[in-house]
């Protein structure tokens, strides 16, 4: 049972991050209807919020101090290393014009969450980490709230909070500003849904992703089509509220592909599970690697960049490099843990 759960979680992480990376690597080369079509790849962020809530929601007891220490070390140390590396690289290859020293400290100390001018100064995708940090801060409170209520009540309350927030930023014309549309209340209902699914899994062995393929693909198609319709025809309100069908549709699509690949296309399943294992490192480095390799192809090889080079050459190299970054960070964390254990042992001996 545990292996099955972990398989799907890693698979879904891999599916989400790969679709996001493909979206980012395709953006510079498409226009018109294709530019709108690939926007579906960005919906992987919604799935990540659900998966984050699920993974953290599996904890039976939450000690706030231990939770903060563990999560922040695991997330922030790799992030800090990558951000500083990007800052240094940017001094040589100025990809980001707003990557100033002020912006660097804004990323390191997270005051970028309150300053729109530097929010995406080291890459647009780093907004996601700011939101996750906010969820880590409020997570102990959310666990307490979830455990005091029934699951439906918890979902309804958090959804109402998100909807109220959507209406507020839309009314004040703030929905297009990243510091507002990436605030944790924007995605609270998705994170909370993941926490409820985790509770159902722990207490009732309920695995929501194990539905019939017909149900999964129907919900996926319906959700994605409704998301597109709301985005294209619903104006500002439609673009704000299409998070709901986007999240449900994309999660259903991931579950459908997981089901199909488990029985028919097993190499795809194993590949996406592997991508899930390195998803954080791939998230951190994919844009700077793309910019570096794309620049080399254009400036050194004198080859005009296109979507085929981006997806068939740069993407595999980025995944390969991310796998080594993953191994290096894993080794770094292991060494830090060993040194901490030795320090504790030395200072507790009589």
Any overview of this molecule?
The chain has 15 helices and no strands. By secondary structure, the protein is mainly alpha-helical. It has one domain. Helix 3 packs across helix 6, helix 3 packs across helix 12 and helix 6 crosses helix 9. The longest helix is centred in the last third of the chain and has 42 residues. The model has no long low-confidence stretch (mean pLDDT 90).
In terms of DSSP E residues, the strand content is: under 5%
Tell me the span between the first and last alpha carbons.
Answer: 44 Å
Low-confidence stretches: none
**Number of separate strands:** 0
What is the residue-mean pLDDT, rounded to a whole number? 90
Any idea what the shape is? globular
Strand-pairing-aware structural class: mainly alpha
Number of helices: 15
Helix content: over 70%
Largest sheet: none
In sequence order, what are the helices and strands, one letter per element? Answer: HHHHHHHHHHHHHHH
The number of distinct structural domains comes to: 1
Q: If you compute it from the alpha carbons, what radius of gyration comes out, rounded to the nearest whole angstrom?
A: 21 Å
Give the secondary structure arrangement, pairings included.
Elements: H1 2-26, H2 32-37, H3 44-57, H4 64-92, H5 101-109, H6 127-148, H7 151-171, H8 178-181, H9 188-204, H10 213-233, H11 235-241, H12 243-263, H13 266-277, H14 279-299, H15 307-348
Please outline what is shown here.
The chain is an all-alpha fold and 350 residues long.
């Amino acid at each position: 049972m545990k292996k099955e759960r972990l398989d799907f979680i890693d698979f879904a992480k891999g599916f989400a991050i790969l679709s996001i990376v493909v979206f980012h690597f395709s953006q510079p080369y498409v226009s018109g209807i294709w530019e709108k079509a690939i926007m579906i790849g960005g919906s992987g962020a919604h799935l990540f919020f659900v998966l984050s809530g699920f993974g953290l929601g599996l904890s039976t007891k939450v000690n706030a101090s231990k939770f903060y220490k563990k999560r922040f070390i695991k997330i922030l140390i790799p992030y800090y290393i990558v951000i500083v590396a990007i800052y240094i690289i940017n001094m040589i290859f100025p990809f980001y014009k707003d990557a100033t020293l002020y912006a660097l400290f804004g990323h390191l100390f997270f005051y970028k969450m309150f300053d729109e001018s530097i929010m995406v100064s080291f890459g647009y995708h780093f907004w996601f980490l700011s939101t996750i940090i906010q969820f880590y801060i409020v997570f102990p409170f959310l666990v307490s709230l979830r455990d005091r209520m029934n699951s439906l009540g918890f979902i309804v309350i958090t959804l109402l909070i998100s909807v109220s927030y959507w209406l507020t930023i839309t009314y004040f014309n703030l929905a297009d500003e990243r510091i507002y549309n990436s605030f944790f209340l924007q995605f609270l209902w998705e994170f909370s849904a993941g926490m409820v699914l985790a509770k159902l899994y722990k207490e009732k062995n309920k695995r929501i992703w194990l539905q019939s393929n017909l149900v999964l693909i129907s919900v996926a198609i319906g959700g994605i089509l409704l998301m597109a319709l709301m985005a294209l025809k619903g104006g500002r309100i439609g673009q704000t509220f299409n998070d709901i069908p986007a999240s449900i549709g994309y999660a259903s699509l991931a579950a459908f592909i997981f089901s199909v690949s488990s029985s028919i296309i097993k190499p795809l399943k194993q590949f996406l599970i592997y991508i899930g294992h390195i998803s954080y490192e791939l998230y951190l480095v994919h844009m700077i690697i793309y910019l570096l390799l794309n620049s080399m192809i254009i400036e050194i090889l004198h080859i005009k960049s296109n979507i085929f080079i981006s997806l068939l050459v740069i993407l595999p190299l980025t995944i390969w490099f991310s796998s080594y970054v993953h191994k290096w960070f894993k080794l770094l964390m292991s060494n830090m843990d060993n040194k901490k254990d030795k320090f504790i042992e030395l200072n507790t001996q009589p």
